[in-house]
């Protein structure tokens, strides 16, 4: 059965040219949790706000994160061979903005905005994160502007459930527990 709109001749979908701006707009419509990926070691202590994170396998426990190849954090992860994904809660918009480069803070000032604990790999874990997943790099695959970095989990820290910080349509939202 056709929808009422289709019966009235109103097409609810539009076709757009496949270009970079259209793709970015389409991706902005996918709600995602907000994370800060951190690393520490010979390549330096850095971090960046990311949204592309997901589980890969539970045996061995592994996750992936996508990081822009031009970022300082990317270079440090490649050199350090470790990273930690810190999932933010609704009170962490300022941390997300700082690690996204808003406010033009030096990297040490970004870390000064919160309390961090060195986890198993030496990566900074955000004490108040909903979840911190500390990983050793297993593989790196370059895809366009980003690298897909798969890590084997070395440590997991979880806090009591709270409201997760989400990002969709270029704005922050909260997802209740």
TrEMBL record:
Domain Flavin reductase like: 27-174
Pfam families, per the entry: Flavin_Reduct (PF01613)
Keywords: Oxidoreductase
Domain of life: Bacteria
The UniProt record lists the keyword Oxidoreductase: yes
Protein name: Flavin reductase
């Amino acid at each position: 059965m056709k929808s009422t709109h289709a019966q009235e001749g109103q097409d609810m979908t539009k076709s757009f040219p496949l270009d970079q701006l259209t793709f970015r707009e389409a991706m902005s419509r996918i709600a995602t949790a907000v994370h800060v990926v951190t690393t520490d070691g010979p390549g330096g202590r850095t971090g960046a706000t990311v949204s592309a994170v997901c589980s890969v396998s539970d045996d061995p426990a592994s996750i992936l994160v996508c990081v822009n190849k031009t970022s300082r954090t990317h270079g440090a992860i490649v050199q350090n061979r470790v990273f930690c994904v810190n999932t933010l809660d609704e009170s962490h918009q300022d941390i997300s903005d700082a690690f996204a480069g808003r406010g033009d803070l030096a990297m040490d000032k970004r870390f000064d905005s919160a309390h961090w604990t060195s986890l198993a790999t030496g990566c900074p874990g955000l004490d108040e994160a909903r979840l911190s997943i500390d990983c050793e790099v297993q593989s790196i695959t370059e895809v366009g502007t980003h690298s897909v970095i798969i890590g084997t989990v070395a440590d997991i820290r979880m806090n009591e459930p709270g409201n997760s910080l989400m990002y969709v349509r270029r704005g922050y939202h909260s997802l209740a527990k």
